[in-house]
User: Fold this.
Amino acid sequence: MPRKRFGQHFLVDQKVIADIHRVVAIRTSDVVLEIGPGRGALTAGLVDSAAQVIAVEIDRDLAADLKVRFPSACLIEDDVLSVSGDLFRKKRIVGNLPYNISTNLLLRLASQNDFVDMHLMLQREVVERITAVPCSKSWGRLSVKVQRIWETHRHFDVAPEAFVPQPQVTSTFVRIVPLGNPVEIRNESVFDNVLRTAFSQRRKKLSNSLSQFEINWSRLGIDSAKRADQLGVMEYATIANSLVR
Ligand code: SAM
Assistant:
């Protein structure tokens, strides 16, 4: 039985699985990290094409089955949110992510740009947030964190019928690539604190929502009468960096 607490919605539509493999286009030299292999819907094709597949699965029973079915893969039975960031380095990352951890995983990884690329199935609403532009409804902390370091590209939507059991929302398959020149951040936690504070009161003027920080607005050339959703990545980086001596 699929385990709800692990967000288990298994891909069963063979056309979607084939489309994913076509888009990811694994080469024989690639080292792949699969997040949440589940019943191996994507793993089979990855093992066939890649130099090495490492897979992180939290469900002990599924991990045990996968070890038998894919002896050449390196199965790590663990929570992907608690593995070391080193595991992602130089990997091509693939995953039909459990929806309950997708935002947390993206936020956790969004200070890391040392992986090759990442192809993920996410709920469409999360993809709208990571691909959003300023002044739109979806623009928020996740958009800024992700876009300061990664480029995102929407591939295709996937209907609930492609999964068993069916999720309640439409999914989107997305490609994420680290930027060659990410926007420089002097201190990640200051950056995060500014974003969190600004977007927790997104309709307020920045002069009010960010009043707890000592910001010299005129020196930074940023209009403090604007609202949180009107600033872009560079402006948030400028504000956060000005707070770090
Ligand atoms: N890749 C499979 C597929 O496409 O059919 C399964 C996808 S299912 C949406 C998500 C998978 O991630 C499940 O196998 C689930 O057990 C696993 N999972 C859930 N939370 C996890 C976590 N924190 N760390 C690692 N795997 C997790």
About this structure: The pocket of S-adenosylmethionine is lined by residues 6-11, 36-39, 41-42, 56-59, 62, 79-81, 96, 98, 101 (CB under 6 Å). The chain has ten helices and nine strands. The longest helix spans residues 188-200.
